[in-house]
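Batch job 17 of 40 flagged for manual review because the log was empty.
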Amino acid sequence: MRNKQTKRGIFMSVTVTINAKPHEVADEHLEMSLLRYLREVLGLTGAKCGCDRGQCGSCNVLIDGECRRSCLFKMKKLDGKDILTVEGLADGDKLHPIQESFIVEGVMQCGFCTPGQIMAVAGLLRKTLTPTREEIDKAFKGVLCRCGSYPRVIKAIHRAAAIMRGDEWTDEKRVFDDVIGSSYPMVDAVGKVTGSLKYVDDYYVPGMLCGKVVWSEEPSAQLLGIDASEALAVPGVVRVITHADCPDLYYGPLAMDAPVLCGGRIRSRAEPLALVLAETQEIANAAAKLVKIDYEILPAVFSPHEALSPGAPSVTTDYAKPGIPIAGHSAPESDGNVTLKLHIGKGDVEKAFAEAAVIIDEEYSSQRIEHGYIEPECSITVPLENGRYVNYSNSQAAFGARDNCARALECDPEKVNFCQIQVGGSFGGKGDHLLRMLSCVGTRVTGRAVRVTLSREDSLRYHNKRHPFEMHEKLAVAADGRILGLQNYLLGDGGAYTYFSTRIMPQAVCYSSGPYVIPNFDSTGVVAFTNNVSSGAMRGYGSPWKAP
């Protein structure tokens, strides 16, 4: 790092080379991470922000030929460094052998982690063009991919290494003149391997505000008040949005029983209480810590057994206080803490047990599971002329997303242009509209473009998880191995709100027989409200058990 003399004094001078081009780093950018500098200053969004903690590897770049996490390096420490990003790997329109091999071997799925993977391979093959499996595993340690295409990655590495060595490489026969029996490259494959394909957080709108959600620190409480005065006094903070700005706005994929911003009963630590809007994300993050919440702590239940026990505290009952709005007015009718109870059956299971040669009577359980997608949730809402808006986000239901944006913006759906952006992994975890509704409320209140991006910590805290199940299974088997009957009882933890429980439990009850035709079948399922994060859909949801 060098010092430079200016009329205003002596300042640090930092020059870096990025993709073979020199860049003198402006003084205001010296404290930026390399990841932010690439994305926000240079517009090189191929390096992705999956965790901002150096853990996921989605932000990999080469620094002086070594694979490094760009989120861990501040610009003031990079003077004289030579940096290569995924955008600089190709030779003009000619893809690098690594990029080409990723396409040929069909490595990508959602593609969010692909640039980070490619740069890890680039760093490896700069050291050796004959990598061993141990060297590959070491290079890929910490490069996370939820889609799980690592066997194809290994094939792509060996293919690229052979081409770079100058060896002859013969690909498997691929014929693209017939759809049936052929393997086609993804239509967006080049965008994924070059980093040019944009995800929601890759879009930058001039003058947009950045949001930070304030979550409840209590799993069960009554919200008595929010003091945002200190946060509003921070330079750069524009607005702190609360329930008062959207008192009748609720969300939920099946039942709209969750408030977009809570104003009364708090049901879990995933409850959003306020949204801080500021000129930069750093200002919003700092100001959010200054928002003071006044609670009345209430009893909580954290398992379906607790929730369904006699005298258990109610998860859904609102405790009205003078002047405090009651949340959850649109919640479905609930029998205590029961979200849903249902039963299906056929034949006579008791007769089957009486005739059985073998009876298997066991209890099983499955745990709550995090979806683990690498792309955190993000939504950007932009006001246009004539009362129209555009929302950039990803969704599993585009028209539902548009309609919920319209509700948050208090306008007709026809005035909202919902832009479905590439999803960086979901697996059922991005099934609601909270983030896009929050950005829409922010735009409605301020009249400005608003982006709300969750940190990795906030994402883990907020989004639904797979239902934990407890199962009591009783199976009747004949002497010749035929299944005569099955009786089961499924108990699920639905979390704080309905979410997908009323769809998942019916499927669990139906699927509990597995692929077998069972003449005598009796299946009961119960989902309970608890003060945990809401439970929802996940790959293979509703099928928690395989018949023995």
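Reviewer: the log was empty due to a logging misconfiguration, but the result itself is present. Residues 319-334, 544-548 have pLDDT under 50 and may be disordered. Unflagging and moving on to job 18.
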